[in-house]
From TrEMBL:
Residues 172-357 form the Helicase ATP-binding domain. This is RNA helicase. It comes from Camellia sinensis var. sinensis (China tea). SMART domains: DEXDc, HELICc. Residues 141-169 form the DEAD-box RNA helicase Q domain. A motif (Q motif) lies at residues 141-169. GO terms for molecular function: ATP binding; hydrolase activity; RNA binding; RNA helicase activity. PROSITE patterns: HELICASE_ATP_BIND_1, HELICASE_CTER, Q_MOTIF. Keywords: ATP-binding, Helicase, Hydrolase, Nucleotide-binding, RNA-binding. Residues 29-90 are annotated as: Disordered. CDD domains: DEADc_DDX3_DDX4 (cd17967), SF2_C_DEAD (cd18787).
């Protein structure tokens, strides 16, 4: 249980013995991926909805099945019962954090022994790790081995972080040594702390804390953390505030869709770490309210997303044209679970003598997530979804319904599905880029609290969000890009817990068949024979495409090790278009549509599409980026 869990879950006690540390699945005795019997997701879920299923029509499953459920207009009888939805403001964390005590006898944190609830932490060594670059600092086994400073170590104890996760073990020493870092690790494996700890520790060590802004009210943060969505920025801000508790380090968040005036006032009180979405940051810089002149640390979370063509121009402006110290004069840290080769090339412009680190395979999904793919035609999707939700509630402990995240392709589709679910007696809410910020926050809060245990979302919720107790991710509409799939399903199966991901697949998703099969095989998932068949067919016709990362199972991921790079074919300052032109297999996996192919997506339709994958494939380079269409 994380600290966040303990706040969200009224039944959970924030004591050390209940904390489930991150353990890779192959090290856990009798790993049970049967999520629906798993009390991690249900027993302690904050959702307490009870549904009376009387009168529900039965259904069968399988390819080509007709719908057995006739749900329209039917309610599930008994009124849904919710426990009191928590009134607490999830963003008001510092107050709650104060109430938690530091556990002084936490040997595992300070001593780094092999404790931690009897788990064998030495076995973490088994996780495949690739590092490349010169003079790579060695990994550590405990937080205490790194000089993070007492105040930060105390906060780590407060968070009940007993042991560093694999990405933290490897990346924190690298960052503490002042090296630039491009890091890749699976979803839910603790990347946020991996970049926050070195930043906080560095600010404390160098005493570079910013003064309250000067007479002309310009803020000079020493660290900048950029993320693609408002919700993710808020989440990182909350985490960074917890980690900075009682250290004097000031963390401020700036994101679009909310009044700028309050955010500017927060900046005036002083800021050491600014967490921001690119659009709002540019606005503040242009208003001369923020200067990047003093930046020592730059972190890009979801770095591949930040450097794809939706955000890349804005990021380039921020990093190269707005007083930001150059590479070498600042430390740059890029993190993501996916890192396509061509984005690595692009990112290398921003870095100096960097170390590449991959914990697990780049772009792989964790085998904590049990993946299922069902063949479902569009017209049957709603019935299938209803069946899944019914089954889920049947199997939930104490009749509770687990939190389920349903991904759809378009904003309009999200609203329609939310309405349909609600009309059919299933409390649902939706989040997408056309909702105003207050609606987005309300939807997320309602979902987190279990008040509406189904959240219908576009890709705006696909990356980074760490929502406790999400037991099931359903890809109602599959994304066009396998990386988006990896991030979406990564909303479950986090921090050592298991999760379930179900995808509805049809002929429309042919191009995803091959990478999906490869991803599932890699994560030791059972691949349905019909899907394997599709994968073969699609690659025979050249439409499938292989993985975007190349190389052997656990290698070939740092693009600098690729043949093109080493043979000198690669020009270090090449443009994005050049990079794409030499990128291996990217074109093949990107839905058979190259970046310089003219627009194929109906523009009107693109207006309602809220996914990077869909949008980006509909836009050529010289056209308007997609930021305005749902991302922040
Ligand atoms: N050392 C640790 N021990 C226990 N839990 C941890 C540790 N580090 C992080 N966590 C918890 O793991 C969860 C996932 O962490 P985080 O959100 O940073 O993952 P992530 O790798 O950034 O995921 P994503 O790729 O989806 O953005 C969080 O709830 C966090 O509190």
């Amino acid at each position: 249980m994380s600290w966040a869990d303990s706040v969200a879950d009224p039944y959970a006690r924030p004591i050390r013995s209940s904390w489930r540390t991150y353990v890779p699945p192959h090290l856990r005795p009798n790993t049970d991926n049967a999520v629906f019997g798993n009390s991690n997701h249900f027993g302690s879920s904050s959702s307490a909805n009870r549904f009376d299923r009387s009168g529900r029509a039965g259904s069968s499953r399988g390819r080509g099945r007709g719908g057995g459920f006739r749900g329209r207009g039917r309610s599930w009888g008994r009124q849904t019962q919710f426990h009191d939805a928590p009134n607490s403001d999830p963003f008001d964390i510092v107050e709650k954090f104060d109430e938690l005590e530091v556990i002084e006898d936490c040997d595992d944190v300070v001593g780094g022994g092999g404790g931690g609830g009897g788990l064998n932490f030495d076995a973490y060594e088994d996780i495949p790790v690739e590092t490349s670059g010169s003079d790579v600092p060695p990994p550590v086994n405990s937080f205490a081995e790194i000089d993070l400073g007492k105040a930060l170590i105390d906060n780590i104890k407060r968070c009940k972080y007993v042991k560093p996760t694999p990405i933290q073990r490897h990346s924190i020493p690298i960052s503490i040594a002042g090296r630039d870092l491009m890091a890749c690790a699976q979803t839910g494996s603790g990347k946020t702390a991996a970049f926050c700890f070195p930043i906080i520790s560095g600010i404390l060590r160098n005493q570079t804390m910013s003064p309250v802004s000067n007479r002309i009210n310009i803020a000079y943060p020493s660290a900048l953390i950029l993320s693609p969505t408002r919700e993710l920025s808020c989440q990182i801000h909350d985490e960074a505030k917890k980690f900075s508790h009682q250290t004097g380090v000031k963390v401020v968040v700036a994101y679009g869709g909310a009044p700028i005036s309050q955010q500017l006032r927060n900046l005036e009180r002083g800021v050491d770490i600014l967490v921001a979405t690119p659009g709002r940051l540019v606005d503040m810089i242009e208003r001369a309210r923020v200067s990047l002149r003093m930046i020592k640390y730059l972190a890009l979370d979801e770095a591949d997303r930040m450097l794809d063509m939706g955000f890349e121009p804005q990021i380039r402006r921020i990093v190269e044209q707005m007083e930001m110290p150059p590479p070498g004069a600042r430390q740059t840290m890029l993190f993501s679970a996916t890192f396509p080769t061509e984005i690595q090339r692009l990112a290398s412009d921003f870095m100096s003598n960097y170390i590449f680190l991959a914990v697990g395979r780049v772009g792989s999904s964790t085998d904590l997530i049990f993946q299922k793919v069902e063949f479902v035609q569009d017209m049957d999707k709603r019935n299938y979804l209803m069946d899944l939700l019914h089954t889920q509630c049947d199997n939930g402990a104490h009749g509770k319904c687990a939190l389920t995240l349903v991904f759809v392709e378009t904003k309009r589709g999200a609203d329609a599905l939310e309405r349909w679910l609600s009309m059919n007696g299933f409390p649902a809410t939706a989040i997408h880029g056309d909702k105003v910020q207050m609606e987005r926050e309300r939807a997320l809060k309602s979902f987190k609290s279990g008040f509406t245990p189904v959240l219908v979302a576009t890709d705006v919720a696909a990356r980074g969000l760490d929502i406790p107790h999400v037991a099931h991710v359903i890809n109602f509409d599959l994304p066009k890009d396998i990386d988006d799939y990896v991030h979406r399903i990564g909303r479950t199966g986090r921090a050592g817990k298991s999760g379930l991901a179900t995808a509805f697949f049809s002929e429309k998703n042919m191009t995803l068949a091959k990478p999906l099969v490869e991803l599932m095989q890699e994560a030791k998932q059972e691949v349905p024979p019909w899907l394997a068949q599709y994968a073969e067919t699609s690659s025979a016709y050249g439409s499938g495409g292989g993985r975007r990362y190349g190389g052997s199972k656990f290698g070939g991921r740092d693009f600098r090790n690729s043949t093109q790079f080493n043979s000198g074919d690669y020009n270090y300052s090449s443009s994005y278009a050049d990079a794409v032109a030499v990128a291996d297999s990217y074109v093949a996996t990107s839905n058979a549509c190259t970046y310089n192919t003219p627009v194929t997506t109906d523009y009107a339709a693109a207006g309602v599409v809220d996914s990077f994958a869909a949008d980006s494939r509909g836009f050529a380079f010289d056209q308007e980026p997609i930021v305005a269409s749902g991302w922040d």
